[in-house]
TrEMBL record:
It holds the Pfam family Aldose_epim. This is Aldose epimerase. CDD domains: Aldose_epim_Ec_YihR. It comes from the Bacteria. InterPro entries: Aldose_1/G6P_1-epimerase, Gal_mutarotase_sf_dom, GH-type_carb-bd, YihR-like. Gene3D superfamilies: 2.70.98.10. The lineage of its organism: Bacteria, Bacillati, Actinomycetota, Actinomycetes, Streptosporangiales.
Amino acid sequence: MPDYTITGGGYQATISERGGALRVLRHGDRDLVTSWPEGGPVPYYSGTMLAPWPNRVVGAEYAFDGRRHHLPVNEPDRGHALHGLVSDRDWECAELLVVEDHHGHVRLTYIVEPVEGYPHRISLEVRQALSEEGLSTTLTAQNVGESAAPYGCGPHPWLLAGPDVTTYELELPAGRVLLTDELLAPTDLVDVAGTPYDFRAPRVIGETAVDHAFTGVADGRVRVRGPEGGVDLTWDPAVMPWVQICTGTGLGHQGLAVEPMTCPPDAFNSGTDLIVLQPGDKHEATWTIAAVNEEG
């Protein structure tokens, strides 16, 4: 499971072939994401690519194109299919450019072959590039099979601003939150006003346990601040209209998961914002992680 380290703009990033994951991101001497040891294991999907669906397919089954499909269950305590098919797979390095203190980048590829519950062939490419603006990641998917394929994607970084997420200040300018039941299956999409999940004005997370998808993020930005500084994650909300926020309450894992997504949980069943890739179609999504400067 080789790693690839790039530098640029005062940043250093280490990308793993496992899951195409961002394993380390530093600005100066400060870690911006929760890292993990070289060689793994990868804790709680840290930094991995989520495709051809992010989040959950409830009950690990769905209907598409007139057929019922059954996916392998990888969240056995809830019975769902979680975070796609590539987060634990070894990607291949297609290009590596290491330029000291300038614009280093690395490009990894993976092909999703037809499997139980997902009889489609999807070519994936992830390009990670550093500059003074931070780490910009672009995930490109192309349907290289012979049938239309449902598709969604997102990343799974845990942003790091100190050892205790309860001390983080979260700014999440999202207007609506998707409520869930005890199995984290979606129930109702509601206005954040009057819920514990209204972080439109920056405030400390405290003891609020969050593991929810949000939408209506007008400017496509989430900011966290803590004792060790601040981190921004930005994206185009026209391409990724959803973001999952997870405090990891009870996991014993540092950081705050901030996961921009092209679709909400269980989109394979609801159809909400689901992308359908016809043979030959491409889809591209980009996001950026950056340190917040003292004036930011």
